[in-house]
Amino acid sequence: MYHHIKVEPVSPVIGAEISGVDLTAPLDDKVIAEIRQALLDHLVVFFRDQAIGFDHHTAFARRFGELHVHPGAALRGNNAELVRIYADEKSKVVAGERWHSDLTCDPLPPMGSILHMHVLPSCGGDTQFTSAYAAYDALSDRMKAYLEGLTAHHDGTRVFSTAYAGKENADKVSYPKADHPVVVRHPETGRKLLFVNPEYTIRINELGEAEGEAVLKFLYSQIGLPQYSTRFRWRPNSIAFWDNRSAMHIAVWDYFPQTRLGYRATIKRTAPPTA
Q: Where do the structural domains in the chain lie, given as residue ranges?
């Protein structure tokens, strides 16, 4: 199936490691096509021993689409194309400590994200990834029917207002909001998946507060089941590239007070999520 790269699954449900490619070198269209296929097949792909610079990082991301501008781009240390992921002994919170897809609060959430770590703690600081396909597939037919037609409200305020509090230029950060179906179809594979998460999802619009909270709590527990997930242990010059339309992830903050620094390029989606 793959003729230009080597793809080794890291779990039966989600994740694969790609080798046989140098991301500092120009990549022809056939290699990019196989990486894209591996991403669709495995939801998140990992690369090892890739000593890429910022230019390599953004050039590689652009092979998959136009780059998305993060709401926090105005913060010190960030730019319009690379989001700085940083925590040290002074950090009181870190972004992404709960299951989420990146920026589902945007009307047009990203297609995918490519994270390259620059500074790592002596141990810990892993990232877990889970399959929103598997979480949906395991639901009963009655629950699937109940969820059809429901929409959820996503709000970036509670994430960004806490994470960016007190930081330089924090007053320039906007907090996007959007409504999306609870169940969506992946635009390329056509598979159904859950599109709610405890980071950004505030409520289910068509349900009362108590009922909506109960449904969301159940769906979050479904998303977090370990059999749908994998855990990536970072090493120097490692890269993770995830399909934000089908995979969720969580940043494990178990390394305090050590430092962890990385940069993420995010790729635009071309159409909003649809059922």
A: 6-267
6-267 topology per CATH: Double-stranded beta-helix (3.60.130)
Contacts of 205 (CB under 8 A, 6+ apart): 150, 151, 152, 153, 179
* Kind of pairing between the strands at 44-47 and 16-19: parallel
Which residue type is seen at 105? C
State how far the Cα of 243 lies from the Cα of 15, in Å rounded to an integer: 10
* Residue 35: CA count within 13 A, CB half-sphere: 24
pLDDT in tens, 77-136: 566 789 888 999 999 888 788 999 999 999 999 999 999 999 999 999 999 999 999 999
Q: Give the catalytic positions in this structure.
A: 100, 102, 249, 264
Greatest distance between any 2 Cα atoms in the chain: 54
Please tell me the distance from the alpha carbon of residue 240 to that of residue 10, in angstroms, as a whole number.
13
Instruction: Please give the structure tokens belonging to residue 80.
Output: 């319009």
Residue with tokens 């699937």: 144
